[in-house]
Amino acid sequence: MSVAAEALKPSEMKPKFIIEAALLVSAEPLSLSELKQLGDTPLSNRELETLLAELVQDWQGRGVELTRVASGWRFQARPEMQSYLDRLNPQKPPRYSRAVLETLAIIAYHQPVTRGDIEEIRGVAVSSNILKTLESRNWIEVVGTRDTPGRPELFATTKRLLDDLNLRALQELPSLQEIGALLEQDAAC
Known about the structure:
Layout: H1 15-25, H2 32-36, H3 45-58, E1 64-69, E2 72-77, H4 82-85, H5 98-110, H6 115-122, H7 128-136, E3 140-145, E4 153-157, H8 159-164, H9 176-188
Antiparallel strand pairs: 1-2, 3-4
Helix pairs in contact: 1-3, 5-7
């Protein structure tokens, strides 16, 4: 029997292999606390971070990469592979209306906000369907209510939005000035 065909014995299971396998088969990003639970002996944060850094290096130059997002760590296809992967599933990604994207941007940059806050910034009424669309995508959630008459709901973004945008934190979003400059460039073209 070849070495490649032999199964690893439990005593030969290295934490790095266990972490790599868990990340490869998980449908969702895994947090450090979830990764710590995998081994027979507990790993310190430092040891775990070292193993993750090694895995990042091990996967350099391949079609997939290990990356950290808001919810934890995950393997994902490198962006330059997307055009090839789209051939497997030629469906178009969902398109969102300008109103949906404006509402999402307002929530992301001004959170927590009420529906009234959004309407004031946009200058138009916000349809319930817009908020339902963002909630069904799990990009926003109700995080409380404002202590004012009527107790309006406060909306904020979720970790899922950050994961979908491949971000670790809201601070990684481009500044409003950067977005304005990009819009001006597009308008000039």
